[in-house]
Amino acid sequence: MKKLKIKKDDKVKVISGKDKGKEGKVLRVYPDKNRVVVEGVNLVSKTLRKSDKYPNGGIAKVEAPIDLSNVMVICPHCNKPTRIGRKDEEHHPRYCKKCKKNID
């Protein structure tokens, strides 16, 4: 299985789509579908069934997955959206292509 360049808890910036320019933390990663869920991005309305928590039901806003190609990792050192590199696919940590510092 190929390792992804984006991991859970990475800070990312959306580079295309209706939420272009927004930043957030990665909540979930779906490697088989090449999709990620980002906090506060791609909000969709979900109807809620009546329950003890919601006695009248209701409509909630929830984050939906977006494609992996629509986000860029923000480097914690230079605070800029950057491409991610690996010297070796297996064991070497990810690094920022702009400042050349390790991200992991």
How would you characterize this protein structure?
- There is one protein chain.
- The chain is an all-beta fold.
- The chain has a domain at 11-75: SH3 type barrels (Roll), CATH 2.30.30.
- The protein is built from no helices and 10 strands.
- A hairpin with a 4-residue loop joins strand 2 (23-30) and strand 3 (35-38).
- The model has no long low-confidence stretch (mean pLDDT 90).
How is this fold's topology laid out?
Layout: E1 11-14, E2 23-30, E3 35-38, E4 43-48, E5 58-63, E6 66-67, E7 71-74, E8 81-82, E9 84-86, E10 94-96
Antiparallel strand pairs: 1-2, 1-7, 2-3, 3-6, 4-5, 7-8, 9-10
Residue windows where pLDDT falls under 50 for at least 5 positions: none
Give the CATH level 1 class of the domain at 11-75: Mainly Beta
Number of helices: 0
CATH topology of the domain at 11-75: SH3 type barrels
**Helical/strand content category:** mainly beta
Global Rg: 17 Å
Q: Specify the biggest β-sheet.
A: 6 strands, antiparallel
Residue share in helix: under 10%
Structural shape: elongated
Q: Tell me which CATH architecture of the domain at 11-75 applies here.
A: Roll
Short characterization:
With 104 residues, the protein is mostly beta strands. The protein contains no helices and ten strands. The protein has a domain at 11-75: SH3 type barrels (Roll).
Protein traits:
single chain; 104 residues; mainly beta; SH3 type barrels; 6-stranded antiparallel beta sheet; two-stranded antiparallel sheet; 0% helix; 40% strand
